C-alpha cells in the first residue's frame, strides 16, 4: 500500500485537481475569499485599535486625573455648593495612606495655548500653556528631552526660576540655530532660565498644544504666581500590579475626609480614569475581533461546503476506480486518506493564496497611510503571526471536515456494486 506522502499519491491528487481546472478554481475561490475576508477584517480591527489607543498618547494608562469641584451636600455645618482646593500636604498624605500609588503628581496651570500672550523674549511674544510640575511627571507622560534636562528635586527645593520648553515655544521665540540653554524668557513678567527643550514621545493627542507647553518646578510656580499651597489637580499612577480604578474609592475617601466633604458626596471630586477608558476601548476591540473571526468563519464555511460538494461529485465520478481499487485489496483507510488529502490540499492551497492576497492589500494600505499621512482613529492595520497561525489551523480543520463526508461515502460502497456502474 502506498504511503500517505508517496510520489504516486501526489501525482494522482494533482491529476484529479487538473482534470477539471475551472471547477477546481471556482471551488477554491470560496475558501480563498473566506480567508481573505477573515484576515482583512482582523487587520482593519487592529488598525482601528492602534488608532484609538494612540489617542491615549504615551501617558501611563494606569493613571487618573483628579480635581476638586463644588460640594453637592452640606457637611459638618459647611454649606452645599462650597468650593475647596486640594493642598500640597494632600500629596504626602495620599502616598502614606495608599502605598500602591506609584506616582502622585500635583499640578498647577497658567494661561492657555489659545489665551492671551503671556510669554516674551526680546521682541517676540506668544501664548503658551504653563505648568507647575514635579520631576516624576515625565514618568507618567514620557517626553523626549532634545536639549538639556527636565525638572529635578533640587529645582523644587531651591524654588529655582527655571523652565523646560516645548518645540512650539522654541520655534516661536528663537531663531533657527540660536542657542537655547541658559537663555531667559519672561512669563507673566517673571524671568525664567531655559534648562531644556522637549517633544512628546509619539504624541497622538493635541500635538500643537503639547509643543506649545512650558514646564517649571511646582514650588517656583506657586511662589511666582501666588498660588500658595493650593494644587490645581493631580495625576495619579498606580503600581504596575494594581489597577488605579481599584484604588479610586480609597483615594476619594482620604481626600473627602481631609477637606470636610460628606463621604457620600460623589460630585465634590472630579476625575478622569485613563485605565477605565483604556479598558473599555480594549473590551470593544475584543468584541470587534470576535465579530471578525465570526464573519470570516461564516464566509469560509460557505467555501468549505463548496469543496465538500465538489469532492462528493469527484467521488461519484470515480466510483468505478474506487471499486477496482477496493477489489484489488485497497483498505477503506487508503481510499479515505486519498479523498481527505485532495480536499486538504485544495483547501490549504486556496487558503495560502488568500492569506498572501490579504497581506498584499494590508501592505498597500500601509503604503497609502505613509504616503497620505495619518487618518483619525486608524493606524498601521496589521495582523500578528498568531492570527496567520490560527487561520492555518482553521484551514487544516476545514479541509479535513470538507473531505470527511465524501471520504465516508467512498468507503461505504461495496466493491461489487461499484464495479457494476457504467
From TrEMBL:
Residue ranges annotated for the ABC3 transporter permease C-terminal domain, each copy included: 294-415
TM regions (residue ranges): 25-44, 290-315, 344-363, 383-405
Main location: membrane
Location of the MacB-like periplasmic core domain: 24-250
Membrane topology note: Multi-pass membrane protein
GO molecular function, one term: transmembrane transporter activity
Alphabetized UniProt keyword annotations: Cell membrane, Membrane, Transmembrane, Transmembrane helix
Compartment annotation: Cell membrane
Pfam families: FtsX (PF02687), MacB_PCD (PF12704)
Record GO cellular component, one term: plasma membrane
Similarity remark: Belongs to the ABC-4 integral membrane protein family.
Protein name: Putative ABC transport system permease protein
Protein's organism: Winogradskyella arenosi
